[in-house]
């Protein structure tokens, strides 16, 4: 059989037969483009693929490497690197620092800046909307089950940038803000630290065509055990699809950071995420599997879409670090059975060779599991989402992807437009980004002092803190108090902004 190959960035795709091709790491997916069938061994440039792609002609727009995704992989969000590479931490013991943290709240943990990454939590939460084109796609679908699948794919994609990110973001100061908007993007995002103890960050992100609005707040709760750190982010995330009059909600997932005492740090999500379409009573239940010793599979997500009669209508499957698929129910169940029967061969990556192993059988001190996910997909499945390929040089830059690299860039536009409370004006983070750790530490102490003094001052005056851009409202569905934008930020009136830096 004739094979066709095409290169995509660093990836090589091999087209095996009429309708399927294999990705370099053997993820099987489908492509409908006829241009890829036929003659023997030929290389395609991705531009040809884009040109041959016609979303209106093909009945299944979701079956393709989408234009949006291709656009995203090529887009520069600004600079493509940080000014300096990260520091070598191999000589520093985290445990000596973390042991003082047991029982403390994340915002009260003061770690040396060397364990930080040069973005604050507000910026890190911006990463959740990198794949917001999935919300545009959801909005365009007329079928509610289809919409649900894209929303579920968005929920999975929104944690993807956390892969290998084992540094601590800066704790935002009370009143700190961040905005992300670009002329060429069809959405805008802004967030504010609305509470310091406990640390709550509120965000709002809206499509500029008023198709959807995504908002919520995150309060990361941290627990330490002897070997791991468990982060439970509290807070409901809400999505409104305007044209369909639909409200979806879901919650952030628990994650665990392993080997905080000895061995190599690694990180996983586990638990169930339930994406609920309250308007139509549809649900997507996603099970994030913890690392399984027997299958050696890591970062796997399995789930179903349920209709309003609680019947399974679609299978959802993938890896939050790689891609996410929709599978029809019969095939899915057979596929899951098959996988149980044929557990994968254990494979260890060379990266794990140098790790410190422990005598005990306990997984926590074991090697970092291999994360190359090899699997074959059953027929009638299609890809909903795919991660943007990693950068070769990411490991030297805190494992940031292209989007994250640009988040803290201080451009002229930022200087001109943003309020003085924007993260990008924060001096300690700026110094750290530039590699001046000593000054960064001094600045950090100064800012924390300043924040404390301001709080004491408010207490003296019996003043309460009121956020500038958010207010609490009763959630129309859950009935809880939630943080909502007061719709004033984009009027860009900064005269009342507090002086926090
Ligand atoms: C010194 C080392 C061990 C500390 C590193 C701790 C890092 C890995 C922890 C500290 C706080 C954590 C974050 C807290 C909250 C959230 C929000 C959630 O929706 C996604 C995960 C995410 C973004 C966590 C990722 C992991 C995290 C960044």
Automatic annotation (TrEMBL):
Name any one GO molecular function. sterol binding
Is Transport among the key words of this record? yes
Pfam families named in the record: Oxysterol_BP
Give me the stretches of Acidic residues compositional bias: 358-369
UniProt keywords, alphabetically: Coiled coil, Lipid transport, Lipid-binding, Transport
Output one GO BP term: lipid transport
| Record has Coiled coil as a keyword | yes
Q: Where are the transmembrane segments?
A: none
Coiled-coil boundaries? 430-464
A GO CC term?
plasma membrane
Region labeled Disordered — which residues? Answer: 346-376
Homology family: Belongs to the OSBP family.
Q: What is this protein called?
A: Oxysterol-binding protein
Organism name: Didymodactylos carnosus
């Amino acid at each position: 059989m004739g094979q066709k190959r095409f290169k995509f960035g660093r990836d090589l795709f091999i087209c095996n037969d009429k309708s399927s091709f294999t990705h370099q790491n053997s993820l099987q997916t489908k492509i409908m483009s006829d241009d890829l069938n036929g003659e023997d061994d030929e290389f395609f440039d991705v531009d040809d693929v884009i040109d041959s792609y016609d979303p209106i002609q093909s009945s299944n727009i979701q079956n393709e490497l989408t234009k949006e995704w291709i656009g995203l992989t090529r887009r520069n969000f600004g600079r493509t690197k940080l000014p300096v590479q990260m520091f070598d931490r191999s000589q520093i013991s985290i445990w000596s620092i973390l042991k003082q943290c047991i029982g403390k709240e994340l915002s009260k943990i003061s770690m040396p800046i060397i364990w930080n990454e040069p973005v604050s939590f507000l910026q890190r939460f911006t990463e959740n909307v990198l794949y917001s084109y999935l919300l545009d796609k959801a909005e365009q679908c007329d079928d509610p089950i289809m919409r649900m699948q894209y929303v579920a794919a968005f929920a999975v994609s929104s944690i993807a940038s956390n892969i290998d990110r084992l540094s601590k973001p800066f704790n935002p100061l009370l009143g700190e803000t961040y905005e992300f908007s670009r002329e060429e993007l069809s959405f805008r995002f802004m967030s504010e630290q609305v509470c310091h103890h406990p640390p709550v960050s509120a965000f709002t992100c809206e499509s500029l065509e008023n198709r959807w609005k995504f908002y919520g707040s995150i309060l990361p709760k941290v627990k330490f055990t002897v070997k791991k750190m468990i982060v439970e982010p509290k807070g409901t995330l809400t999505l409104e699809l305007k044209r369909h009059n639909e409200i979806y909600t879901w919650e952030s997932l628990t994650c665990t950071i392993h080997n905080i005492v000895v061995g190599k740090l690694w990180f996983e999500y586990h638990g169930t995420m339930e994406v609920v379409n309250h308007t139509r009573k549809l649900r997507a239940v996603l099970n994030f599997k913890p690392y399984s010793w027997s299958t050696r599979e890591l970062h796997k997500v399995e789930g179903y879409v349920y209709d309003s009669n609680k019947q399974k209508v679609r299978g959802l499957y993938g890896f939050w670090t790689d891609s996410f698929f929709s599978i029809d129910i019969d095939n899915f169940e057979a596929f899951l059975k098959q996988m149980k029967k044929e557990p994968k061969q254990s494979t260890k990556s060379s990266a794990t060779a140098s790790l410190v192993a422990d005598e005990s059988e306990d997984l926590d001190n074991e090697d970092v599991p291999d994360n190359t996910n090899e699997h074959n997909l059953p027929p009638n499945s299609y890809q909903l989402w795919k991660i943007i390929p990693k950068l070769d040089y990411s490991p030297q830059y805190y494992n940031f992807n292209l989007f994250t690299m640009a988040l803290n860039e201080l451009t002229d536009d930022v200087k001109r437009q943003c309020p003085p409370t924007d993260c990008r004006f924060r001096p300690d983070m700026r110094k750290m980004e530039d590699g001046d750790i000593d000054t960064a530490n001094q600045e950090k102490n100064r800012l924390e002092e300043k924040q404390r003094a301001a709080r004491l001052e408010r207490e003296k005056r019996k003043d309460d803190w009121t956020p500038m851009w958010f207010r609490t409202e009763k959630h129309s569905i859950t009935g809880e108090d939630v943080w909502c934008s007061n719709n004033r930020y984009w009027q860009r009136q900064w005269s009342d902004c507090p002086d926090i830096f």
